[in-house]
Amino acid sequence: MAATKKTQKTVDVWKKKRWHRILSPKVFNEQVIGETPALEPDTLVGRTIAVNLATLARDMKRQGIYLTFEVGKVMGDTAFTYLKKYEMMSSSIKRLVRRNRDRIDDSFLCTTADNVPVRVKPFLLTRNSTKHSIGTALRRGTREFLSRTIRKLPYDVLVQDIVTGKLQRAWRDTLKNIYPLKICDIRVLELELGGKRLDEVMTTVQQAPPEQPPQETKVEHNEQEKKVKKSEEIPQPEGGHIVA
After folding, report:
1. Residue 177: CB atoms within 10 Å
2. Which pLDDT tens digit goes with each residue over 127-157?
3. HSE of 163 in the Cβ direction (CA atoms, 13 Å)?
4. Number of CB atoms found within 10 A of residue 236's CB
5. Mean pLDDT, rounded, for 104-129
6. pLDDT given at position 222
């Protein structure tokens, strides 16, 4: 008589998964931007989600901008994110470019006040066609202004100033003396973390020991103290007056 085969019951993995809410950063008031299932909460860390800025800002004029968020930590059924990339859509940029207007692009690295490395790609559009020297001056002025300003702002404040347009207005006021601009905006703002998460970078920065003063300054200071002590050891004449 043939042996009966034992049938194994298949386990549905989806029944074990739990749904987690994904929240935007505090800059965007921690709004719910999506939901995702996961078997283990730790597997959510590193996942990205793209959201249109018009959805978060409740403003249809911002529909040409997309924000990419990355999950940094998970607490319970809630996943917290940070902004990884701010980007203008190429289609919206093409609609702005016209004849007899010069488009000026650039790309460079900056570091925020809390030592977060970011790559900035500005986008300028003049009102009329210009000379090559004017474009070079605009590019140089843009790089100097953004590097100086970003160095003074923490990452969260930088994102807030870009989303609200505060940074762009101050930037335009700086360049208007060179040439009037039609568009002055950030095309791309992206984190350059080298594969690390933002919370790991911030933890490394906070745990880093403070910089020690150079040894040369200590030696000079000690030599000055020795000179002062030697001058104090010189015996003074009686009466308290030095006879020339």
Report:
1. 9
2. 888 899 999 999 999 999 999 999 999 999 9
3. 22
4. 8
5. 94
6. 52
Q: Is the pTM of this model over 0.85?
A: no
| Positive/negative CA dihedral, 171, 173, 179, 185 | positive
Concatenated DSSP letters of the chain: -PPPPPPPPPP-HHHH-EEEEEE--GGGTT-EEEEEEESSGGGGTT-EEEEEHHHHHT-GGGTTEEEEEEEEEEETTEEEEEEEEEEE-HHHHHHH--TT--EEE--EEEE-TT--EEEEEEEEEESS---HHHHHHHHHHHHHHHHHHHTTS-HHHHHHHHHHTHHHHHHHHHHTTT--EEEEEEEEEEE--TT--HHHHHHHHHHSPPPPPPHHHHHHHHHHHHHHHHHHHSPPPTTS----
CA dist., res. 71 & res. 46, Å (int):
5
Instruction: Spell 96-106 as b/e; 16+ CB within 10 A means b.
Output: eeeeebbebeb
Q: What is the pLDDT of residues 44-87, one digit of tens each?
A: 999 999 999 999 988 888 899 999 999 999 999 999 999 999 99
**Rounded CA gap, 75 and 65, in Å?**
29
Look at residue 242 and tell me whether its pLDDT is greater than 50. Answer: no
